[in-house]
Specification:
Layout (H helix, E strand, L loop, with lengths): L5 H22 L19 H19 L59 E4 L17 E6 L4 E10 L2 E8 L5
Antiparallel strand pairs: 1-4, 2-3, 3-4
């Protein structure tokens, strides 16, 4: 066995210590440059959501055209709309289990703005999101839920589609009727 003494031993120990630190750093995960709460939502990342929103708005316009210009009341959405949707279906999200496509609606809640106000902006974070566990299991933070509110006095509506940004639910689609 060779015994090392003096400056050579100190240099070798320093090299081993640096190599150990470098190996330890290599095993550390790289920090997320933008945590989910600070990422900006890109609607282009979920093109199916915009396509589904346009499909629903087209069905709402057709409904109004056949009902003296009136949109369906909130409590009748989407039941009244089903016959106006192509094949009673929508583009499916690739992230949903089993390609869930049905329109489900949930109650409007803050920070979502109702039909008589300026719609909540696309990209607004609603909180930690989730997948539905059944066809009836939708709320305002369920990815893929559609939220509809109609104001009878003004015959205005707002339609929100809930998108996904990381593990957050965000407003991925916001639509109102065209101005007449």
């Amino acid at each position: 066995m060779v015994a090392l003494h003096g400056p050579l031993a100190a240099a070798l120990l320093a090299c081993l210590a640096l190599a150990g630190c470098a190996a330890s750093q290599a095993r550390q995960p790289a920090p997320d440059p933008a945590p989910a709460a600070r990422r900006t939502y890109d609607p282009a990342a979920e093109p199916w959501l915009a396509a589904a929103g346009r499909t629903i708005q087209g069905a709402l316009a057709t409904f109004a055209a056949t009902h003296d210009g009136r949109y369906p009341p909130t409590h009748q959405f989407p039941v009244e709309l089903v016959t106006y949707l192509p094949e009673a279906d929508l583009p499916a999200s690739p992230a949903w289990p089993e390609g869930i496509r049905q329109v489900r609606t949930v109650a409007i809640a803050a920070p979502l703005v109702a039909a008589i106000g300026v719609p909540t902006a696309v990209g607004t974070v609603l909180g930690r999101g989730r997948l539905p566990t059944s066809d009836e299991d939708f709320d305002a933070r369920t990815w893929g839920a559609w939220i509809y509110d109609h104001d009878v006095a003004t015959n205005r509506y707002v339609l929100y589609g809930i998108g996904r940004s990381g593990d957050l639910a965000v407003v991925g689609y916001a639509g109102t009727p065209p101005d007449r």
